[in-house]
Design goal:
Blueprint: H1 19-25, H2 29-45, H3 49-56, H4 61-75, H5 79-87, H6 92-111, H7 117-145, H8 148-176, H9 180-204, H10 228-237, H11 243-255, H12 260-284, H13 290-311, H14 319-348, H15 354-380, H16 384-422
Helix pairs in contact: 1-8, 2-8, 2-9, 3-4, 3-9, 4-7, 5-7, 5-15, 6-7, 6-9, 7-15, 8-12, 8-14, 10-15, 10-16, 11-12, 11-14, 11-15, 12-14, 13-14, 13-16, 15-16
Length: about 425
């Protein structure tokens, strides 16, 4: 069965959430199960891939970390090809392929002999290709079966479901760690089976677009919009995703000498808030333009970074609880950003170039995620003022760039309308 995006007009703005409509807009029940299974498998392995390299393969921690980073960065090379594949109309096939590539990565991981860094690097590369290709493919599929604000809610629902699966998978993996190397190998094998099952389910929904006849930008079919400022700003925005995982544990443990329990509590709270609030906040924000919401996300994230600066200032007797409290504001900013960024790209882009636009967006996201740990650790070594001050300034500047790009679009649109009127 081939499915094309229905309708040409933006759906009515609503603040109500219909779970059944949300599942349909997300690709249907089978696809929702595929997302959950895929996320569960990723949650089982991704947080412990470093441990697998160190414990099972006997590689040094630095070698393992560098190999994983290089694999993730090299995987970004696949994005132009993924974009072109999507623009030929493929949807569920690309999603399934992103999962099958990770099956191959897990198989290589299990076949890697002790001390073999090159085979481990190849496995990390295939896992990285799947991880990089999936977000663009998933967003393209949702954009094909849903329109307007229903599409935005469906994208948010997919993120919430994925975070829930990642969280459950991570908890299960943590419980199994007492089993040592055998348990880690078993986790990898279960992950591969989960990816295989998810790929079969995703492929079975048979979603395919017809770019030549599918309406883009809610009915308008034209050239790809210029989103240079948005893509560059996204590299900075995406740092917020690594704040709970990298920046806050680093600051709490090494600078504030607080118990690691605080970092764990922040991570758990972040996951719970994303799972429970991603869809409601996205629906609530639907009364505003997507670009305005993305600008708001930058402002909220900037405020949270300044809050972290205040909480970690010398002489603050309640630094750890204060950092934990401010982390909630940071998570709200992350939720607003995640609910508006991809939605803005899909709304701006005509259908015949949607794949390439989403690939470019994922490229900017991947770059931001790849460089943010190194940037954060380098800034943190110079003190809280440098770390949080730099993040706040860069994020606010990015939000300003997104706003400026909107003004340029409005001026360009006005000139085009005047040119048509004069002709």
């Amino acid at each position: 069965m081939s499915t094309a995006a229905p309708g040409t007009a933006d759906m009515a703005i609503t603040t109500k959430i219909d779970p059944r409509a949300l599942v349909r807009a997300s690709g249907g029940p089978r696809y929702a199960v595929a997302l959950a299974v895929d996320a569960l498998g990723t949650g089982l392995l991704r947080p412990f891939l470093l441990l697998y390299g160190v414990t099972v393969l006997r590689l040094s921690a630095s070698t393992t970390g560098i190999t994983m980073t290089v694999g993730a960065i090299m995987a970004l090379v696949c994005m132009p090809a993924v974009g072109r594949w999507l623009d030929r109309g493929a949807r569920s096939t690309v999603v399934a392929a992103s999962m099958l590539v990770r099956v191959l990565g897990v198989a290589l991981l299990l076949a890697t002999p002790t001390g073999n860094v090159w085979l481990f690097a190849t496995a990390a590369l295939f896992l990285g290709i799947g991880n990089q290709a999936w977000p663009a493919a998933h967003a393209a599929l949702v954009a094909t079966v849903a329109q307007g604000r229903e599409r935005d809610a469906a994208l948010a629902g997919g993120r919430a479901l994925r975070n829930a699966g990642l969280g459950v998978g991570g908890l299960l993996a943590t419980a199994c760690l007492a089993g040592g190397t055998t348990a880690l190998q078993a986790l990898a094998a279960v992950t591969g089976l989960a990816y295989l099952a998810a790929a079969a389910l995703a492929r079975s929904v048979h979603v395919h677009a017809h770019p030549a006849v599918t309406p883009g930008r809610d009915g308008a079919d034209g050239p790809a919009p210029r989103m240079r400022a948005l893509l560059i700003a996204n590299v900075v925005y995406v740092f917020c995703l690594n704040v709970p995982e990298v920046a806050l544990p680093l600051v709490l443990v090494t600078q504030l000498h607080a118990s690691p329990v605080w970092a764990a509590a922040i991570f758990v709270a972040n996951t719970v808030l994303v799972v429970t609030l991603q869809v409601p906040v996205t629906v609530l924000m639907s009364r505003f333009s997507r670009r305005s919401v993305l600008i708001l996300a930058g402002v909220v994230l900037t405020a949270s970074y300044l809050g972290f600066l205040a909480a970690t200032s010398p002489g603050h007797g309640w630094s750890a609880p204060a950092v934990t409290t401010v982390s909630v504001v940071c998570t709200i900013g992350e939720i607003i950003y995640a609910g508006s960024a991809t939605a803005l790209v899909t709304a701006l882009t005509p259908a015949h170039v949607l794949g390439r636009a989403l690939a470019h967006f994922q490229l900017s996201t991947g770059i931001g995620l790849a460089v943010s740990p190194a940037v954060i650790t380098a800034l943190a070594s110079r003190g809280p003022a440098v770390l949080w001050g730099s993040l706040a300034a860069a994020t606010l500047l990015s939000a300003s760039a997104v706003a400026t790009e909107k003004e340029q679009e409005l001026r360009l649109s006005g000139r085009c309308r005047r040119a048509r009127a004069d002709s």
